[in-house]
Amino acid sequence: MLPPLTEPATTPSERQGLEEFLDYFRQVIRRKAEGLGPEQLTHTVASSSLSIGGMIRHLTLVEESWFSEVLLGRDLAEPWASVDWKADPDWDFDSAAGSSADDLLSAHAQACARSREILAEAADLDALSVRGDSTGQKFNVRWILIHLVEEYARHAGHADLIREDIDGQVGD
């Protein structure tokens, strides 16, 4: 069972607020997978191909990509390194099929822990990433944190709808 949801502080510094909201939405998305079996983790709603398991796997990649690959300039490790992203751009979402919640959540927790370690070393929100976008434009730590809060919040909303359709569970 996952620990109780930790609410962000109501009067944070900028950095504290960004980090706490990111951690908050990390917790929310993880709670959506709690207690689900492999079949339920691949459940989709209407014409969407999104599943809770796919979102957990995708957000694991998001953590690794933004903090290790973009911010530090490191190459992605396995399982991401050997994926042919041009042939299968949705591999992260699709490859979760058949995985258990424990396996997906364990990989996600490890990626989040590495991200927190990297972030702790980035003393300045204005520090620029080693890698940039397709035009070479670099990202500062602040932008990366804002983007991850947005990414998690968007997928948490998707997961709310899917989880409600699976078993009626609402909340968070």
Short key terms for the protein model shown above:
5% strand; 172 residues; mainly alpha; 2 strands
Please give a structural write-up:
- This protein is 56% helix and 5% strand.
- The chain has a two-stranded antiparallel sheet with strand order 1-2.
- It has 172 residues and is mainly alpha-helical.
- It has six helices and two strands; from the N terminus they run H-H-H-H-H-E-E-H.
- The model has no long low-confidence stretch (mean pLDDT 96).
Number of helices: 6
Instruction: Say how many strands there are.
Output: 2
Our estimate of the beta-strand percent is under 5%
Radius of gyration: 16 Å
The H-and-E topology, N to C, reads as HHHHHEEH
Amino- and carboxy-terminal Cα gap = 15 Å
Q: What's the overall geometry? A: globular
Coarse structural class: mainly alpha
Give the % helix. 55-70%
- What ranges have pLDDT less than 50 throughout 5 or more consecutive residues? none
Mean pLDDT: 96
The biggest sheet, with number of strands, parallel, antiparallel or mixed sense and barrel status, is: 2 strands, antiparallel
Order of strands across the widest beta sheet?
1-2
